[in-house]
Amino acid sequence: MTPRIAIIGGGGHARVVVDLARALGRTIVGIFDDRPGQQGQSVDGCPVVGTLMDLVGRPRDDFEAVVAIGANDVRLRVASECPTKWATLVHPAATVSPSATLGHGTLVMAGAVVQPGTTLGDHVVVNTRASVDHDGVVADGVHIAPGATVCGGVHIGDGALVGAGAVLLPGARVGAWAVVGAGAVVRDEVPAAETWVGVPAKRRVV
C-alpha cells in the first residue's frame, strides 16, 4: 500500500506540492504548519491539521512527509528537526532519467527534466519547467527555480538558489548558500554565500 503524505508548510509553495501529491494519486494526511494564523486554514481544500510537533507525535509507519517550504535554510532546518520518513515525489509530467539519483524529500515538479547521471541530494526542489542536464551534482536543500537551465556537469552546493530562468553553462560551479539571480548566466564559478546577477553573471555589490 502506498503511504499517505503529510505536507509541512502551508504557504504558496504548498499549493504546488499539494497539486504534485494529488497528481500522483497520493492521499494527503493534511498540512502541518507552526504559524498560529495557519491553524484551521486550508490550502486548495487540504486542511492545516496541526503543528510540526503534532506531526512528530504520529506513528511513523502511518505516512511519509515532504517539506513544502521554498526558503532553503528553513526547509533544511525543519527537515533536520523532524524525525520521519521522507517521500521523494516526481510529477507525472516531469522527465527523470533512470540513471539519475534522487535524495530523500526531493521534489521534481511538472515539466521539469533531470538527465542521465545526475545526482540530486536531499530536500532539493527542481521547480516547474526547470532542467538539470547530464552528470550534474545538486547538493542538499538546493532550489532550482521555475524555468532555470542547468547544463551538463554542473555542481551546485548545499542550500544554493538558482533563480527563475537562470542558465548555468556546462561545468559551472555554484558554492553553498549562493544565489544566482533570475535570468543570470553563469559561465564559470559563483563562490559560496555570494549573490551573482546579470549576463554574464557578476557579483552583486550591496
What is the quaternary state of this protein?
single chain
In total, how many beta strands?
25
Order of helices and strands: EHEEEHEHEEEEEEEEEEEEEEEEEEEE
How far apart are the termini? 52 Å
What is the radius of gyration? Answer: 17 Å
* Mean pLDDT metric: 95
Identify the overall geometry: globular
Class inferred from helices and paired strands: alpha/beta
**Unreliable stretches covering 5 or more consecutive residues:** none
Report the total helices: 3
> How much of the residues is beta strand, in percent?
25-35%
Sheet of most strands? 8 strands, mixed
| Strand order, sheet with most strands | 6-9-12-15-18-21-24-25
How would you describe the overall organization of this protein?
The chain is an alpha/beta fold and 206 residues long. The protein has 3 helices and 25 strands. Strand 1 (4-8), helix 1 (12-23) and strand 2 (28-32) form a beta-alpha-beta unit.
